[in-house]
Q: What sequence folds into this?
């Protein structure tokens, strides 16, 4: 429904190399698309354990950020994650996103292990003026041997 409404664009992540080449290894989305304000969020990302902590996430985010800034003309791209998801926070920061702030008691958790507890949400972003430096950084990271 969100895709049909134009507020979400989901992508399957297919490994290009290695043992899993040609296989689906995760998903990610452009979501909370706000065309009028030229903003979107990249999120709802997950990967198979076998490809976590590889260059795959950097490659995917480079493609999505390029689409957002270079093709769609976005002013800002946002990332959100749980305060306690330290791996996700570090990954977002490695991309070059900056912490905008923390939405305290932002959501009521519905997951069975945390049902009813409150979630603090970290909000990060990359803005259009930062994109050239972020793009150069990501391209450099992806050009390293073994990336």
A:
């Amino acid at each position: 429904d969100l895709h049909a409404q134009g507020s979400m664009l989901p992508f399957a992540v297919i490994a290009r190399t290695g043992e899993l080449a040609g296989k689906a290894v995760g998903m990610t989305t452009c979501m909370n698309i706000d065309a009028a304000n030229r903003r979107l969020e990249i999120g709802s990302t997950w990967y198979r354990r076998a490809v976590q902590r590889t260059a795959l996430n950097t490659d995917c985010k480079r493609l999505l950020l390029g689409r957002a800034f270079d093709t769609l003309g976005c002013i800002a791209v946002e990332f959100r994650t749980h305060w306690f998801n330290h791996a996700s926070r570090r990954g977002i920061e490695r991309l070059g996103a900056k912490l905008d702030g923390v939405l305290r008691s932002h959501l009521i958790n519905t997951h069975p292990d945390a049902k009813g507890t409150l979630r603090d949400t970290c909000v990060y972003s990359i803005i259009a003026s930062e994109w050239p430096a972020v793009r150069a950084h990501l391209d450099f990271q992806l050009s390293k041997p073994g990336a």
In short: The helical segments are 2-5, 56-71, 86-95, 131-143. The chain has a mean pLDDT of 94. The longest helix spans residues 56-71.
